[in-house]
Design a protein that fits this description.
heterodimer; A: mainly alpha; 434 Repressor (Amino-terminal Domain); five-stranded mixed sheet; 16 helices; B: 141 residues; alpha/beta; five-stranded parallel sheet; 9 helices
Chain lengths: 406, 141
């Protein structure tokens, strides 16, 4: 055995699988220049030397091999495990995100993929800790439903009613919500009480309002776009919950709604209608509507009247539009101008505060409570959780340690 | 005849757990001085990022931080290939590096880890390992 000294030898080069660099980059829709920037940002974060501008092209061509530091930076930039570079890429970049038929993976921006990857990490933490705490999918209270054959009111209304009953949303309760924020928080709490994790992360608007995931043996989970308005998040909650009602846990699934084009997909369409039926029940809507619809209302409801109706339910104009259309009271869904803003706008919301505060907010009540219980029961240490989240131990202690607000 | 010096190779969590569990860094420094405690460079980088208290200690004991040498590259590649399922979805290369380094040390190296995945690979590869509490007992810390 040769001796090992503290003298630094030249960085060693690693034999990675041929073609993997290009494949991983292309899958995220990154140009070589964009990828190079992200790899260099990762190298800088790890205090490793930067990569020269043309080096990525050289590595992709196989003319040179990357160093260990470069492989780590590439794994970080391309959102794939380190070990993937020595075998094959995971089948999909993040997980089984199901996208709209006409919104392929290439339409999602890198920032969205990065946040979906974080959702994946949170899901793994939730699965691991809930397993350690003895929770299982059997303890979830999500009523299973078969995907309706049609989108007729006859089939949709009972599902909306079932969601309301499961979540304990009564007409009286709904009328007591002072604003959209209170409505969203109340529905989120009720969904969390069914054993579902609700995570919040800021995603670029216009691509993905939310996602859900329910792997075999794992807990159900919903991702909310924290950059969205409260009324939009309220609808996302109900929409994703509808997806979970249809998704058997034996089918690893994650659902993402990239823009309103997703409404073209049948299941998305049904989830929208079930969610709208749950948030805007027919009985209450009848009370909110004028006895005689104004002239021309079938073609387009007057904005002021729609505003009055939406204030009753704390949902957006668009949800009212979906509901009126579904019940045959309006001719079609006219989405509000700017309903889907351009990617990148409003991306900052939810990112304020310390890192510990952001973790607590991102994990939701159930997630934060689970981490706290796991720490208290010594089923996991702050060090382990920091390892899973790749963060500072102190952040975990501050976010989830004793004395933190629930 | 002199017995070969045993070297403890630490993973990030095990070292942080030890210090958070009350082991004073001065006592670890003594092991560093005797050459019995080693940290691969990638692990040292992780510690600097993960724990502010240990960050300073790592800085003061730079000599113990060994760069990954060229000799174990093939083992690192093999470990990453063969145990991708066990070593999980981590984007860090520290775990396969640590295992490859333990293989390079042979019987002289003892891996100290609290990570179930690393322990499973150690078991498969016949690498001696200790958990951080077991290390503490063994060294009387």
């Amino acid at each position: 055995m040769s001796s090992i000294s503290a003298v630094e030898p030249p960085p060693r080069k690693l034999d990675i699988a041929p073609g993997i660099l290009k494949e991983a980059r292309k899958r995220l829709g990154l140009s070589r220049a964009e990828a190079w920037e992200k790899v260099n940002a990762a190298l800088k974060a790890a205090s490793d030397p930067p990569m020269p501008p043309d080096h990525l092209a050289i590595l992709e061509a196989g003319t040179d091999r990357p160093t260990l530091a470069e492989v780590e930076a590439l794994a970080s930039a391309y959102l794939i495990p380190f070990t993937a570079f020595f075998g094959t890429l995971p089948e999909r970049p993040v997980h089984d995100f199901r996208l709209a038929a006409d919104a392929g993976e290439s339409t999602l921006s890198y920032d969205t993929w990065r946040r979906l990857s974080t959702f994946d990490t949170y899901y793994e933490v939730a699965r691991e800790l809930s397993g350690a705490l003895g929770e299982s999918e059997r303890e979830t209270l999500i009523p299973k439903a078969t995907l309706p054959l049609s989108t007729s009111a006859d089939e949709i209304e009972p599902l909306g009613e079932r969601m309301r009953a499961t979540l304990g949303i009564t007409d009286t309760l709904q009328q007591s919500w002072p604003d959209e924020d209170a409505a969203r928080l109340a529905v989120q709490e009720r969904i969390e009480n069914t054993g579902t994790f609700v995570f919040s992360l800021s995603l670029p608007l216009g691509e993905c309002r939310g996602a859900s995931r329910w792997d075999e043996g794992g807990p159900p989970a919903i991702l909310l776009n924290a950059a969205d308005s409260s009324s939009a998040r309220l609808f996302t909650l109900a929409h994703e919950y509808a997806h979970l009602m249809f998704a058997p846990p034996s089918r690893p699934t994650a659902i993402c709604d990239p823009a309103q084009r997703a409404a073209d997909r049948r299941e998305e369409h049904i989830a929208n209608r079930v969610a709208a039926a749950a948030l805007v029940p027919r009985s209450l809507l009848a009370l909110a509507l004028p006895p005689t619809p104004p002239e021309g209302a079938y073609r387009e409801w007057p904005p002021a009247m729609k505003r009055d109706i939406r204030q009753t339910f704390k949902v957006s104009h668009d949800v009212i539009g979906i509901r009126l259309h579904h019940l045959g009271i309006a001719s079609g869904v006219r989405l509000t101008k700017g309903f889907w803003r351009q990617p990148g706008s409003g991306f900052a919301r939810g990112s304020a505060g310390t890192r510990a505060e952001r973790y607590r907010r991102a994990f939701g009540h159930k997630g934060a409570d689970m981490v706290r219980r796991a720490l208290e029961a010594e089923l996991a240490s702050p060090v382990e959780i920091a390892g899973l989240l790749d963060t500072k131990v102190a952040d975990v202690e501050t976010a989830f340690g004793p004395g933190q607000p629930p | 005849m002199t017995l070969p010096l045993q070297r403890y190779l630490f993973d990030t969590s095990a070292l942080i757990n030890l210090v958070r569990g009350g082991v004073r860094t001065q006592r670890l420094s003594r092991l560093v001085e005797s050459g019995a405690l080693r940290l691969p460079g990638r692990v040292a980088k992780e510690i600097r990022r993960r724990d502010d208290r240990l960050k300073d200690w790592v800085e003061r004991n730079r000599d113990t931080i060994i760069r990954e040498t060229t000799e174990n590259t093939a083992e690192l590649e093999r470990i990453a290939r063969e145990y991708s399922g066990i070593l999980g979805r981590s984007r860090r290369g520290a775990d396969p590096v640590l295992i490859a380094m333990a293989l390079y040390y042979g019987e002289q190296g003892i891996l100290v880890t609290d990570d179930g995945g690393i322990q499973a690979v150690c078991f498969e590869e016949g690498i001696p390992f200790l958990t951080s509490p077991a290390f503490r007992r063994r060294e009387g810390l």
